[in-house]
Design brief:
This protein has 304 residues and is of the alpha/beta class. 52% of the residues lie in helices and 18% in strands.
Length: 304
């Protein structure tokens, strides 16, 4: 057993992994995972005292308590579809037949790590959204249609971001995203479809930005995204081009069929180290840029 663990550790080191912890039993592995979270756990299906499937169940219960996801791979000498089905019925992410091939091990570990990263990114985003919504509901700063913050919430958060930027010599950017001719959507399809459209745009914008960025509803047809950044070269103009593509290029599915819209974006940024503008001037400049973007045509942006 010890020889197998050492060989496994050496194989993992060869493919670039360094944070490797070795356990001599399922109980010890569970204790290690309890003390410090793991992204991926490799375990033998057959172990003394606690089997691999029992360890898997214990890790799943532990993950539920701390809102985390650990990818679990089992090594087994068992073959056939029945063993495979049994493993997946218990919630295993993947399994390897002993002795594992070096290339197969690398591929399976990479895949398991990606599964864990995706799960945990989703959990982190969900936690951030839920925490923000609790804060908004408590302070009456939420838009009841989309569940986003309202204009008052944006002003409070943006003011705090600008104060922090002044202290830390960092940057802040505000992007206003407006649906072009939104009134025509309501008139042509109905207000219910218009409300559905607003929620769909809000969802696409949420998925396009970082969990730490602040998204609010700024007006009837307009959303605001406040972003903090450290790099002097950010934000790059391709960010706004990507937001245009995300929100306004692909059609939206509805009960009335696919609906195509366009968006206009006006953005204004506080550069690291620059003098801080009053909040009203900062928002006002972004609104002026939005008006310029609308005047210039659809699916475009103005950032200056």
């Amino acid at each position: 057993m010890r020889f197998s663990r050492i060989v496994l550790e050496q194989s993992l080191q060869k493919i670039g992994y360094s944070d490797i912890r070795l356990a001599t039993s399922g109980e010890e592995a569970l204790a290690m995972a309890t003390e410090r979270r793991a992204d991926v756990v490799l375990a033998d299906w057959v172990m003394p005292e606690m089997s691999g499937l029992e360890l898997l169940g214990a890790i799943r219960r532990l993950d539920e308590q701390r809102h985390w996801y650990t990818a679990v791979l089992l090594f087994t000498a068992k073959g056939g579809n029945e063993a495979l089905l049994e493993a997946f019925r218990h919630g295993v992410d993947d399994y390897l037949t002993k002795p594992p091939d070096h290339d197969e091990l690398a591929a399976r570990i990479y895949g398991a790590g990606r599964i864990a990263s995706l799960h945990n990114a989703l959990l982190q985003t969900t936690d951030a959204v839920q925490a923000a919504n609790r804060e908004l509901l408590a302070a009456n700063q939420i838009d009841t249609l989309t569940g986003l913050g309202n204009r008052r919430y944006l002003e409070l958060r943006l003011e705090a971001m600008l104060l922090s930027a002044q202290t830390r010599k960092s940057g802040v950017c505000l992007a206003l995203v407006a649906i072009d001719h939104f009134k025509q959507v309501n008139e042509r399809y109905s207000y219910d479809v218009g409300d559905e459209m607003l929620n769909n745009v809000a969802l696409r914008l949420r998925n396009a930005v970082r969990p730490t960025d602040v998204i609010t509803r700024h007006g009837e047809d307009t959303f605001a995204i406040a972003m903090a950044y450290q790099e002097p070269s950010h934000p790059r103009p391709d960010l706004f081009a990507r937001l245009v593509e995300t929100a306004g290029v692909r059609p939206y599915a509805s009960d009335m069929g696919n609906i195509e819209i366009t968006v206009s974006i006006g953005a204004h940024c506080h550069q690291p180290g620059a003098a801080t503008e009053p909040l009203s001037d900062f928002i006002g400049t972004a609104e002026e840029n939005l008006s310029a973007a609308k005047a210039a045509g659809r699916n475009g942006y103005v950032y200056r």
